[in-house]
Amino acid sequence: MTCALCSGHALLAQVLPKWTEKARKAVFSVVTYNKDNQILNTGNGFYIDNNGTAVSDYTLFRGAERAVIVTADGKELPVDCILGANDMFDVVKFRTAVDKKTVASLQPVGQSAGTDETVYLLPYSTQKATTVQSGSIVRCDTIANGSFYYTVNLQTADKNVSCPVMNATGQVIGLVQKSADPESKESYVIGIEFAASLTINALSGNDMALQSIGIRKGLPDDEAQALVYVYMQSATMDNNSYLNLLNDFLEQFPNSPEGYQRRASCYMAFGDDAHNRLADNDLKKSFEVTNKKDEAHYSLAKLFYSYNLNRGETPAYTGWGWERAADEISQAITQNDQPLYRQTAGDIYFAMQKYPEAYEAYEAVNRSELATAASFYAAAKAKELTEGSQLEEVVALMDSAVARYAKPYGKEAAPYLYERARVKTEMKKFREAVIDYNDFYDAMLGQVTADFFVTREQAEVQCRMYQQAINDVNRATELEPKNAEMWMEKGSVHLRVNQLDEAIQALQHSLSLDAQNAVAYRMLGYCQVQQGNKKEGLAHLQKALEMGDTVAKGLIEKYK
Protein backbone atom coordinates (compact mmCIF):
# COMPACT_ATOMS: atom_id res chain seq x y z
CA MET A 1 0.00 0.00 0.00
CA THR A 2 1.24 3.53 -0.73
CA CYS A 3 0.06 7.05 -0.09
CA ALA A 4 0.97 10.52 -1.28
CA LEU A 5 4.42 11.33 0.11
CA CYS A 6 4.67 13.98 2.76
CA SER A 7 7.92 15.91 3.01
CA GLY A 8 9.94 15.08 6.13
CA HIS A 9 10.65 18.14 8.26
CA ALA A 10 12.45 19.06 11.52
CA LEU A 11 10.57 20.06 14.68
CA LEU A 12 12.08 22.52 17.14
CA ALA A 13 12.34 21.51 20.77
CA GLN A 14 9.57 23.82 21.90
CA VAL A 15 6.95 22.19 19.67
CA LEU A 16 8.02 18.58 20.18
CA PRO A 17 5.63 15.97 21.60
CA LYS A 18 5.60 15.91 25.40
CA TRP A 19 7.30 12.50 25.57
CA THR A 20 10.45 13.66 23.76
CA GLU A 21 12.46 14.81 26.79
CA LYS A 22 12.03 11.52 28.62
CA ALA A 23 12.41 9.37 25.52
CA ARG A 24 15.72 10.92 24.43
CA LYS A 25 17.35 9.55 27.61
CA ALA A 26 16.77 6.00 26.29
CA VAL A 27 18.84 6.70 23.16
CA PHE A 28 22.60 6.33 23.40
CA SER A 29 25.80 6.25 21.40
CA VAL A 30 27.63 2.94 20.90
CA VAL A 31 31.39 2.47 20.56
CA THR A 32 32.75 -0.97 19.64
CA TYR A 33 36.38 -2.10 19.92
CA ASN A 34 38.43 -4.78 18.18
CA LYS A 35 40.76 -7.34 19.80
CA ASP A 36 43.57 -4.75 19.92
CA ASN A 37 41.30 -2.41 21.89
CA GLN A 38 41.09 0.00 18.98
CA ILE A 39 37.81 1.67 18.04
CA LEU A 40 36.04 -0.49 15.46
CA ASN A 41 32.76 1.37 14.88
CA THR A 42 30.53 4.02 16.38
CA GLY A 43 26.77 4.22 16.10
CA ASN A 44 23.46 4.40 17.95
CA GLY A 45 21.10 2.24 19.95
CA PHE A 46 18.35 2.49 22.53
CA TYR A 47 16.90 0.70 25.53
CA ILE A 48 13.69 -1.29 25.23
CA ASP A 49 13.30 -2.11 28.93
CA ASN A 50 14.59 -0.95 32.31
CA ASN A 51 16.87 -3.98 32.77
CA GLY A 52 19.47 -2.79 30.29
CA THR A 53 18.11 -4.60 27.21
CA ALA A 54 18.86 -2.61 24.08
CA VAL A 55 18.93 -2.86 20.28
CA SER A 56 21.20 -1.56 17.54
CA ASP A 57 22.52 -2.57 14.11
CA TYR A 58 24.45 -5.82 13.75
CA THR A 59 27.09 -4.25 11.47
CA LEU A 60 28.19 -2.05 14.34
CA PHE A 61 29.07 -5.13 16.46
CA ARG A 62 30.49 -7.49 13.84
CA GLY A 63 34.10 -8.28 14.77
CA ALA A 64 33.85 -6.47 18.12
CA GLU A 65 35.56 -7.86 21.21
CA ARG A 66 34.00 -5.32 23.57
CA ALA A 67 31.65 -2.34 23.44
CA VAL A 68 30.44 0.56 25.55
CA ILE A 69 27.49 2.88 25.34
CA VAL A 70 27.42 6.58 26.18
CA THR A 71 24.06 7.73 27.52
CA ALA A 72 22.36 11.05 26.82
CA ASP A 73 23.65 12.14 30.24
CA GLY A 74 27.23 11.33 29.22
CA LYS A 75 27.65 8.19 31.31
CA GLU A 76 29.71 5.36 29.85
CA LEU A 77 28.44 1.82 30.51
CA PRO A 78 29.88 -1.47 29.24
CA VAL A 79 27.95 -3.83 26.99
CA ASP A 80 27.55 -6.91 29.18
CA CYS A 81 26.41 -9.56 26.68
CA ILE A 82 24.79 -10.20 23.32
CA LEU A 83 21.21 -11.51 23.46
CA GLY A 84 20.59 -12.16 19.77
CA ALA A 85 21.66 -11.13 16.28
CA ASN A 86 20.37 -11.24 12.71
CA ASP A 87 22.76 -10.35 9.90
CA MET A 88 20.08 -10.44 7.19
CA PHE A 89 18.05 -7.61 8.73
CA ASP A 90 21.14 -6.04 10.35
CA VAL A 91 19.91 -5.93 13.92
CA VAL A 92 21.34 -6.98 17.27
CA LYS A 93 19.96 -7.19 20.78
CA PHE A 94 22.21 -6.86 23.81
CA ARG A 95 22.33 -6.00 27.49
CA THR A 96 24.38 -3.32 29.17
CA ALA A 97 25.25 -2.53 32.74
CA VAL A 98 22.45 -0.41 34.17
CA ASP A 99 22.52 2.91 35.97
CA LYS A 100 19.42 2.36 38.13
CA LYS A 101 19.07 6.10 38.92
CA THR A 102 18.88 7.36 35.36
CA VAL A 103 17.86 4.37 33.23
CA ALA A 104 15.11 5.10 30.73
CA SER A 105 13.59 2.90 28.03
CA LEU A 106 11.23 3.12 25.09
CA GLN A 107 7.92 1.30 25.11
CA PRO A 108 7.56 -0.95 22.01
CA VAL A 109 4.38 -0.39 20.03
CA GLY A 110 1.75 -3.09 20.53
CA GLN A 111 0.66 -3.33 16.87
CA SER A 112 1.79 -2.34 13.41
CA ALA A 113 1.77 1.31 12.51
CA GLY A 114 -0.69 2.34 9.78
CA THR A 115 -0.05 3.87 6.38
CA ASP A 116 0.05 7.72 6.49
CA GLU A 117 0.62 7.61 10.26
CA THR A 118 2.91 10.38 11.45
CA VAL A 119 6.20 9.17 12.91
CA TYR A 120 9.20 10.84 14.52
CA LEU A 121 12.92 10.10 14.20
CA LEU A 122 14.52 10.54 17.64
CA PRO A 123 18.30 11.00 17.32
CA TYR A 124 20.99 10.53 19.96
CA SER A 125 21.59 13.83 21.68
CA THR A 126 23.16 15.09 24.87
CA GLN A 127 21.18 18.34 24.61
CA LYS A 128 17.67 18.88 25.88
CA ALA A 129 16.78 20.94 22.82
CA THR A 130 16.62 17.93 20.57
CA THR A 131 15.85 18.40 16.88
CA VAL A 132 13.44 15.71 15.71
CA GLN A 133 12.48 14.83 12.14
CA SER A 134 8.94 13.85 11.38
CA GLY A 135 7.37 12.11 8.42
CA SER A 136 4.77 9.49 7.61
CA ILE A 137 4.63 5.80 6.80
CA VAL A 138 4.53 4.97 3.10
CA ARG A 139 4.34 1.18 3.27
CA CYS A 140 4.23 -1.58 5.87
CA ASP A 141 5.45 -5.10 4.91
CA THR A 142 5.20 -8.26 6.96
CA ILE A 143 8.46 -10.14 7.51
CA ALA A 144 9.59 -13.08 9.67
CA ASN A 145 7.69 -14.04 12.82
CA GLY A 146 4.82 -11.71 12.01
CA SER A 147 7.05 -8.65 12.37
CA PHE A 148 6.96 -5.52 10.23
CA TYR A 149 9.24 -3.61 7.91
CA TYR A 150 8.37 0.02 7.17
CA THR A 151 9.08 2.46 4.39
CA VAL A 152 8.86 6.06 5.60
CA ASN A 153 9.23 9.36 3.78
CA LEU A 154 12.21 10.55 5.80
CA GLN A 155 15.62 11.33 4.41
CA THR A 156 18.19 9.90 6.85
CA ALA A 157 21.98 9.82 7.01
CA ASP A 158 24.47 7.29 8.37
CA LYS A 159 24.46 9.12 11.71
CA ASN A 160 20.75 8.18 12.08
CA VAL A 161 21.22 4.40 11.68
CA SER A 162 19.66 2.49 14.61
CA CYS A 163 17.96 5.59 16.02
CA PRO A 164 14.36 4.91 17.11
CA VAL A 165 11.32 5.87 15.07
CA MET A 166 8.39 6.79 17.33
CA ASN A 167 4.64 7.20 16.93
CA ALA A 168 2.64 10.18 18.15
CA THR A 169 2.02 8.66 21.59
CA GLY A 170 5.72 8.05 22.28
CA GLN A 171 5.91 4.33 21.49
CA VAL A 172 8.81 3.05 19.40
CA ILE A 173 7.82 1.33 16.15
CA GLY A 174 11.33 0.41 14.96
CA LEU A 175 14.90 1.45 14.26
CA VAL A 176 16.36 3.14 11.20
CA GLN A 177 18.39 1.00 8.82
CA LYS A 178 21.35 2.10 6.72
CA SER A 179 20.23 3.52 3.38
CA ALA A 180 21.83 2.33 0.15
CA ASP A 181 21.20 5.79 -1.36
CA PRO A 182 22.04 8.78 0.87
CA GLU A 183 20.05 11.06 -1.47
CA SER A 184 16.85 9.03 -1.21
CA LYS A 185 13.84 10.79 0.27
CA GLU A 186 12.67 7.48 1.75
CA SER A 187 14.14 5.42 4.57
CA TYR A 188 13.58 1.92 5.91
CA VAL A 189 12.72 0.92 9.45
CA ILE A 190 12.94 -2.59 10.93
CA GLY A 191 10.01 -3.17 13.26
CA ILE A 192 10.83 -3.14 16.97
CA GLU A 193 8.98 -6.43 17.55
CA PHE A 194 11.52 -8.20 15.31
CA ALA A 195 14.50 -6.74 17.16
CA ALA A 196 12.95 -7.43 20.55
CA SER A 197 12.21 -11.06 19.61
CA LEU A 198 15.85 -11.93 18.95
CA THR A 199 16.99 -14.63 21.35
CA ILE A 200 19.74 -17.07 22.19
CA ASN A 201 18.59 -20.70 21.93
CA ALA A 202 20.15 -24.11 22.54
CA LEU A 203 21.77 -24.20 19.08
CA SER A 204 22.89 -20.57 18.90
CA GLY A 205 26.48 -21.61 19.41
CA ASN A 206 26.51 -22.51 15.69
CA ASP A 207 25.02 -19.17 14.58
CA MET A 208 27.61 -17.47 12.35
CA ALA A 209 26.21 -14.01 13.07
CA LEU A 210 26.71 -14.54 16.79
CA GLN A 211 30.10 -16.20 16.33
CA SER A 212 31.39 -13.14 14.50
CA ILE A 213 30.89 -11.08 17.66
CA GLY A 214 33.59 -11.61 20.29
CA ILE A 215 31.52 -10.20 23.14
CA ARG A 216 30.15 -12.88 25.46
CA LYS A 217 26.69 -14.20 24.70
CA GLY A 218 23.72 -14.34 27.01
CA LEU A 219 21.90 -17.56 27.83
CA PRO A 220 18.45 -18.79 26.73
CA ASP A 221 15.66 -17.84 29.11
CA ASP A 222 14.51 -21.47 29.40
CA GLU A 223 16.67 -23.56 31.78
CA ALA A 224 16.52 -26.71 29.65
CA GLN A 225 17.54 -24.76 26.54
CA ALA A 226 20.29 -23.04 28.51
CA LEU A 227 21.68 -26.40 29.68
CA VAL A 228 21.85 -27.65 26.11
CA TYR A 229 23.53 -24.40 25.04
CA VAL A 230 26.12 -24.74 27.81
CA TYR A 231 26.76 -28.36 26.82
CA MET A 232 27.20 -27.43 23.15
CA GLN A 233 29.61 -24.62 24.01
CA SER A 234 31.73 -26.79 26.32
CA ALA A 235 33.31 -28.55 23.34
CA THR A 236 34.67 -25.30 21.88
CA MET A 237 35.86 -23.50 25.02
CA ASP A 238 38.94 -23.68 27.22
CA ASN A 239 38.40 -24.33 30.94
CA ASN A 240 38.42 -20.69 31.98
CA SER A 241 35.94 -19.58 29.32
CA TYR A 242 33.68 -22.53 30.09
CA LEU A 243 33.86 -21.72 33.80
CA ASN A 244 32.75 -18.14 33.08
CA LEU A 245 29.81 -19.49 31.09
CA LEU A 246 28.81 -21.78 33.97
CA ASN A 247 29.05 -18.85 36.38
CA ASP A 248 26.63 -16.94 34.14
CA PHE A 249 24.32 -19.94 34.04
CA LEU A 250 24.20 -20.31 37.82
CA GLU A 251 23.66 -16.60 38.27
CA GLN A 252 20.61 -16.92 36.01
CA PHE A 253 19.48 -20.31 37.38
CA PRO A 254 20.71 -20.48 41.01
CA ASN A 255 18.63 -23.56 41.84
CA SER A 256 19.87 -25.84 39.06
CA PRO A 257 21.46 -29.03 40.46
CA GLU A 258 22.92 -29.88 37.07
CA GLY A 259 24.46 -26.43 36.82
CA TYR A 260 26.39 -26.95 40.05
CA GLN A 261 27.46 -30.42 38.97
CA ARG A 262 28.74 -29.15 35.64
CA ARG A 263 30.66 -26.37 37.32
CA ALA A 264 32.08 -28.91 39.77
CA SER A 265 33.25 -31.02 36.82
CA CYS A 266 34.86 -27.94 35.31
CA TYR A 267 36.67 -27.19 38.58
CA MET A 268 37.82 -30.81 38.77
CA ALA A 269 39.39 -30.52 35.32
CA PHE A 270 41.93 -28.03 36.69
CA GLY A 271 43.31 -30.87 38.81
CA ASP A 272 44.53 -28.92 41.85
CA ASP A 273 43.32 -28.95 45.44
CA ALA A 274 42.12 -25.33 45.38
CA HIS A 275 39.72 -26.04 42.51
CA ASN A 276 38.80 -29.41 44.00
CA ARG A 277 37.62 -27.66 47.16
CA LEU A 278 35.43 -25.38 45.04
CA ALA A 279 34.11 -28.45 43.25
CA ASP A 280 33.31 -30.13 46.54
CA ASN A 281 31.30 -27.08 47.64
CA ASP A 282 29.35 -27.11 44.37
CA LEU A 283 28.58 -30.82 44.73
CA LYS A 284 27.18 -30.18 48.20
CA LYS A 285 25.15 -27.27 46.84
CA SER A 286 23.76 -29.40 43.99
CA PHE A 287 22.50 -31.88 46.56
CA GLU A 288 20.92 -29.10 48.66
CA VAL A 289 18.91 -27.55 45.82
CA THR A 290 17.51 -30.75 44.31
CA ASN A 291 14.17 -32.26 45.22
CA LYS A 292 15.12 -35.66 43.76
CA LYS A 293 17.76 -37.01 46.11
CA ASP A 294 18.09 -40.39 44.41
CA GLU A 295 18.89 -38.68 41.09
CA ALA A 296 21.43 -36.49 42.88
CA HIS A 297 23.18 -39.56 44.36
CA TYR A 298 23.13 -41.19 40.92
CA SER A 299 24.66 -38.11 39.24
CA LEU A 300 27.37 -37.92 41.89
CA ALA A 301 28.12 -41.62 41.47
CA LYS A 302 28.60 -41.14 37.71
CA LEU A 303 30.77 -38.09 38.32
CA PHE A 304 33.07 -39.89 40.74
CA TYR A 305 33.14 -42.95 38.50
CA SER A 306 34.42 -40.80 35.63
CA TYR A 307 36.83 -38.96 37.92
CA ASN A 308 38.44 -42.13 39.25
CA LEU A 309 38.49 -43.77 35.83
CA ASN A 310 40.48 -40.89 34.35
CA ARG A 311 42.83 -39.88 37.17
CA GLY A 312 45.37 -42.62 36.40
CA GLU A 313 48.02 -42.97 39.10
CA THR A 314 47.21 -39.59 40.65
CA PRO A 315 45.94 -40.03 44.23
CA ALA A 316 42.27 -39.23 44.65
CA TYR A 317 41.27 -35.99 46.33
CA THR A 318 40.14 -36.57 49.91
CA GLY A 319 36.77 -38.31 49.91
CA TRP A 320 36.62 -38.75 46.13
CA GLY A 321 37.96 -42.28 45.73
CA TRP A 322 36.20 -45.34 44.35
CA GLU A 323 34.46 -45.95 47.67
CA ARG A 324 32.71 -42.58 47.33
CA ALA A 325 31.34 -43.58 43.93
CA ALA A 326 30.15 -46.91 45.35
CA ASP A 327 28.56 -45.19 48.35
CA GLU A 328 26.68 -42.66 46.20
CA ILE A 329 25.20 -45.33 43.91
CA SER A 330 24.31 -47.47 46.91
CA GLN A 331 22.33 -44.59 48.40
CA ALA A 332 20.59 -43.98 45.07
CA ILE A 333 19.54 -47.64 44.91
CA THR A 334 18.38 -47.58 48.53
CA GLN A 335 16.10 -44.63 47.82
CA ASN A 336 14.88 -45.80 44.40
CA ASP A 337 15.97 -49.19 43.15
CA GLN A 338 15.89 -49.00 39.36
CA PRO A 339 17.84 -50.77 36.58
CA LEU A 340 19.68 -47.65 35.45
CA TYR A 341 21.23 -47.27 38.90
CA ARG A 342 22.09 -50.98 39.00
CA GLN A 343 23.90 -50.62 35.67
CA THR A 344 26.04 -47.83 37.08
CA ALA A 345 26.67 -49.86 40.22
CA GLY A 346 27.92 -52.70 38.04
CA ASP A 347 30.28 -50.36 36.18
CA ILE A 348 31.66 -48.99 39.44
CA TYR A 349 32.18 -52.40 41.05
CA PHE A 350 33.78 -53.71 37.86
CA ALA A 351 36.25 -50.83 37.85
CA MET A 352 36.97 -51.59 41.53
CA GLN A 353 37.64 -55.23 40.51
CA LYS A 354 34.78 -56.35 42.75
CA TYR A 355 33.59 -58.77 40.11
CA PRO A 356 31.00 -60.76 42.12
CA GLU A 357 29.26 -57.49 43.12
CA ALA A 358 29.46 -56.24 39.53
CA TYR A 359 27.94 -59.48 38.24
CA GLU A 360 25.08 -59.24 40.74
CA ALA A 361 24.35 -55.66 39.65
CA TYR A 362 24.41 -56.51 35.94
CA GLU A 363 22.17 -59.52 36.51
CA ALA A 364 19.62 -57.22 38.15
CA VAL A 365 19.62 -55.21 34.94
CA ASN A 366 19.27 -58.39 32.88
CA ARG A 367 16.10 -59.28 34.80
CA SER A 368 14.58 -55.88 33.95
CA GLU A 369 13.12 -54.22 30.89
CA LEU A 370 16.45 -52.46 30.34
CA ALA A 371 18.27 -55.72 29.56
CA THR A 372 20.40 -55.37 26.43
CA ALA A 373 23.17 -57.22 24.65
CA ALA A 374 25.59 -54.86 26.38
CA SER A 375 24.26 -55.69 29.87
CA PHE A 376 24.53 -59.45 29.20
CA TYR A 377 28.03 -58.94 27.86
CA ALA A 378 28.99 -56.93 30.96
CA ALA A 379 27.63 -59.73 33.17
CA ALA A 380 29.63 -62.26 31.14
CA LYS A 381 32.86 -60.32 31.64
CA ALA A 382 32.22 -59.97 35.37
CA LYS A 383 31.41 -63.67 35.63
CA GLU A 384 34.56 -64.61 33.68
CA LEU A 385 36.72 -62.59 36.09
CA THR A 386 35.01 -63.95 39.21
CA GLU A 387 37.17 -66.58 40.87
CA GLY A 388 35.74 -70.08 40.62
CA SER A 389 33.38 -69.32 37.72
CA GLN A 390 32.89 -71.83 34.92
CA LEU A 391 33.39 -70.77 31.31
CA GLU A 392 30.10 -72.49 30.45
CA GLU A 393 28.34 -69.82 32.51
CA VAL A 394 30.19 -67.12 30.59
CA VAL A 395 29.17 -68.63 27.25
CA ALA A 396 25.54 -68.84 28.39
CA LEU A 397 25.56 -65.11 29.10
CA MET A 398 27.20 -64.41 25.76
CA ASP A 399 24.49 -66.52 24.13
CA SER A 400 21.91 -64.17 25.64
CA ALA A 401 23.81 -61.18 24.27
CA VAL A 402 23.96 -62.64 20.75
CA ALA A 403 20.30 -63.73 20.97
CA ARG A 404 19.33 -60.05 21.03
CA TYR A 405 20.13 -59.97 17.31
CA ALA A 406 18.68 -61.89 14.39
CA LYS A 407 20.52 -63.41 11.47
CA PRO A 408 21.97 -62.19 9.21
CA TYR A 409 23.95 -60.35 11.88
CA GLY A 410 24.88 -56.70 11.49
CA LYS A 411 27.85 -54.81 12.89
CA GLU A 412 26.03 -54.26 16.18
CA ALA A 413 26.29 -57.97 16.95
CA ALA A 414 29.91 -58.31 15.84
CA PRO A 415 31.64 -57.57 19.21
CA TYR A 416 29.55 -60.19 21.01
CA LEU A 417 30.21 -62.84 18.35
CA TYR A 418 33.93 -62.20 18.57
CA GLU A 419 33.97 -62.40 22.37
CA ARG A 420 31.94 -65.62 22.37
CA ALA A 421 34.41 -67.11 19.88
CA ARG A 422 37.29 -66.12 22.14
CA VAL A 423 35.73 -67.83 25.17
CA LYS A 424 34.92 -70.95 23.14
CA THR A 425 38.54 -71.05 22.02
CA GLU A 426 39.65 -71.00 25.66
CA MET A 427 37.26 -73.91 26.25
CA LYS A 428 38.91 -75.70 23.29
CA LYS A 429 35.61 -75.72 21.42
CA PHE A 430 37.48 -74.72 18.29
CA ARG A 431 34.90 -75.64 15.65
CA GLU A 432 32.20 -73.66 17.46
CA ALA A 433 34.66 -70.79 17.79
CA VAL A 434 35.35 -70.85 14.05
CA ILE A 435 31.60 -70.66 13.35
CA ASP A 436 31.39 -67.52 15.51
CA TYR A 437 34.45 -66.02 13.81
CA ASN A 438 32.79 -66.68 10.45
CA ASP A 439 29.60 -64.94 11.62
CA PHE A 440 31.73 -62.05 12.90
CA TYR A 441 33.41 -61.76 9.49
CA ASP A 442 30.04 -61.66 7.74
CA ALA A 443 28.65 -59.15 10.24
CA MET A 444 31.62 -56.88 9.54
CA LEU A 445 31.05 -57.29 5.79
CA GLY A 446 34.62 -58.55 5.49
CA GLN A 447 36.07 -55.31 6.88
CA VAL A 448 38.50 -56.97 9.30
CA THR A 449 42.19 -56.70 10.17
CA ALA A 450 45.14 -59.03 9.57
CA ASP A 451 45.01 -59.89 13.29
CA PHE A 452 41.52 -61.30 12.84
CA PHE A 453 42.69 -63.66 10.09
CA VAL A 454 45.52 -64.89 12.30
CA THR A 455 43.17 -65.38 15.24
CA ARG A 456 40.73 -67.40 13.13
CA GLU A 457 43.60 -69.31 11.51
CA GLN A 458 44.87 -70.43 14.91
CA ALA A 459 41.44 -71.79 15.83
CA GLU A 460 41.17 -73.49 12.43
CA VAL A 461 44.53 -75.19 12.91
CA GLN A 462 43.35 -76.61 16.24
CA CYS A 463 40.39 -78.30 14.61
CA ARG A 464 42.44 -79.37 11.59
CA MET A 465 40.80 -77.06 9.10
CA TYR A 466 44.18 -76.65 7.46
CA GLN A 467 43.18 -75.29 4.06
CA GLN A 468 41.02 -72.62 5.69
CA ALA A 469 43.94 -71.80 8.01
CA ILE A 470 46.34 -71.42 5.07
CA ASN A 471 43.83 -69.18 3.27
CA ASP A 472 43.49 -66.97 6.34
CA VAL A 473 47.21 -66.63 7.03
CA ASN A 474 47.77 -65.75 3.37
CA ARG A 475 45.20 -62.96 3.67
CA ALA A 476 46.93 -61.73 6.81
CA THR A 477 50.27 -61.40 5.01
CA GLU A 478 48.55 -59.67 2.10
CA LEU A 479 47.12 -57.06 4.48
CA GLU A 480 50.40 -56.60 6.37
CA PRO A 481 53.21 -57.65 4.02
CA LYS A 482 55.90 -56.05 6.19
CA ASN A 483 54.84 -57.75 9.41
CA ALA A 484 57.49 -60.33 10.30
CA GLU A 485 55.19 -62.05 12.83
CA MET A 486 52.56 -62.66 10.16
CA TRP A 487 55.13 -64.34 7.88
CA MET A 488 56.42 -66.47 10.74
CA GLU A 489 52.85 -67.57 11.45
CA LYS A 490 52.48 -68.48 7.78
CA GLY A 491 55.63 -70.55 8.03
CA SER A 492 54.26 -72.28 11.12
CA VAL A 493 51.05 -73.32 9.34
CA HIS A 494 52.89 -74.72 6.32
CA LEU A 495 55.27 -76.58 8.63
CA ARG A 496 52.33 -78.13 10.45
CA VAL A 497 51.04 -79.68 7.21
CA ASN A 498 54.58 -80.59 6.11
CA GLN A 499 54.69 -78.09 3.25
CA LEU A 500 58.38 -77.47 3.89
CA ASP A 501 59.19 -75.45 0.78
CA GLU A 502 56.40 -72.98 1.51
CA ALA A 503 57.38 -72.91 5.20
CA ILE A 504 61.05 -72.16 4.41
CA GLN A 505 60.11 -69.43 1.96
CA ALA A 506 57.78 -67.75 4.52
CA LEU A 507 60.33 -68.00 7.35
CA GLN A 508 63.14 -66.58 5.23
CA HIS A 509 60.87 -63.66 4.33
CA SER A 510 60.08 -63.16 8.02
CA LEU A 511 63.80 -63.02 8.86
CA SER A 512 64.40 -60.54 6.05
CA LEU A 513 61.99 -58.25 7.88
CA ASP A 514 63.28 -59.02 11.40
CA ALA A 515 66.72 -60.60 11.65
CA GLN A 516 66.47 -60.80 15.47
CA ASN A 517 63.64 -63.33 15.60
CA ALA A 518 65.10 -66.40 17.35
CA VAL A 519 61.93 -68.50 16.92
CA ALA A 520 61.96 -67.95 13.17
CA TYR A 521 65.59 -69.12 13.02
CA ARG A 522 64.72 -72.25 15.00
CA MET A 523 61.72 -73.09 12.79
CA LEU A 524 63.76 -72.44 9.62
CA GLY A 525 66.57 -74.67 10.88
CA TYR A 526 64.14 -77.45 11.69
CA CYS A 527 62.58 -77.29 8.20
CA GLN A 528 65.98 -77.42 6.54
CA VAL A 529 67.05 -80.43 8.62
CA GLN A 530 63.82 -82.18 7.62
CA GLN A 531 64.65 -81.53 3.97
CA GLY A 532 68.11 -83.07 4.46
CA ASN A 533 69.96 -79.75 4.48
CA LYS A 534 71.45 -80.64 7.85
CA LYS A 535 74.45 -78.31 7.78
CA GLU A 536 72.51 -75.15 7.06
CA GLY A 537 69.68 -76.28 9.33
CA LEU A 538 71.98 -76.83 12.30
CA ALA A 539 73.59 -73.45 11.66
CA HIS A 540 70.19 -71.77 11.96
CA LEU A 541 69.36 -73.78 15.07
CA GLN A 542 72.67 -72.67 16.59
CA LYS A 543 71.80 -69.07 15.71
CA ALA A 544 68.46 -69.44 17.51
CA LEU A 545 70.21 -70.91 20.56
CA GLU A 546 72.69 -68.03 20.67
CA MET A 547 69.77 -65.62 20.60
CA GLY A 548 68.25 -67.31 23.68
CA ASP A 549 65.84 -69.88 22.23
CA THR A 550 66.21 -72.85 24.63
CA VAL A 551 64.03 -75.17 22.48
CA ALA A 552 66.72 -75.03 19.80
CA LYS A 553 69.20 -76.70 22.17
CA GLY A 554 67.19 -79.96 22.26
CA LEU A 555 66.87 -79.99 18.48
CA ILE A 556 70.61 -79.50 18.04
CA GLU A 557 71.36 -82.40 20.37
CA LYS A 558 68.85 -84.56 18.50
CA TYR A 559 70.14 -83.87 14.98
CA LYS A 560 73.86 -83.16 15.51
Helix/strand-derived class?
A: alpha+beta
Distance between the termini: 112 Å
Reported for the largest beta sheet, the result is: 6 strands, antiparallel, barrel
Helix content: 40-55%
**Quantity of strands, as a count:** 14
Rg, Cα atoms, Å: 38 Å
Question: How many DSSP H or I helices?
Answer: 23
Strand content: 5-15%
Shape: elongated
Whole-number average pLDDT? 92
Q: Segments where pLDDT lies below 50 for 5+ residues?
A: 1-8
Strand order of the largest sheet: 9-10-11-14-13-12
In short:
49% of the residues lie in helices and 14% in strands.
Descriptive notes:
The chain is of the alpha+beta class and 560 residues long. Helices cover 49% and strands 14% of the residues. Strands 9-10-11-14-13-12 form a 6-stranded antiparallel β-barrel. It has a 6-stranded antiparallel barrel with strand order 2-3-4-7-6-5. α7 (257-270) packs antiparallel against α8 (273-289), α18 (466-479) packs antiparallel against α19 (484-496) and α19 runs antiparallel to α20 (500-513). It is elongated. Residues 1-8 have low confidence and may be disordered.
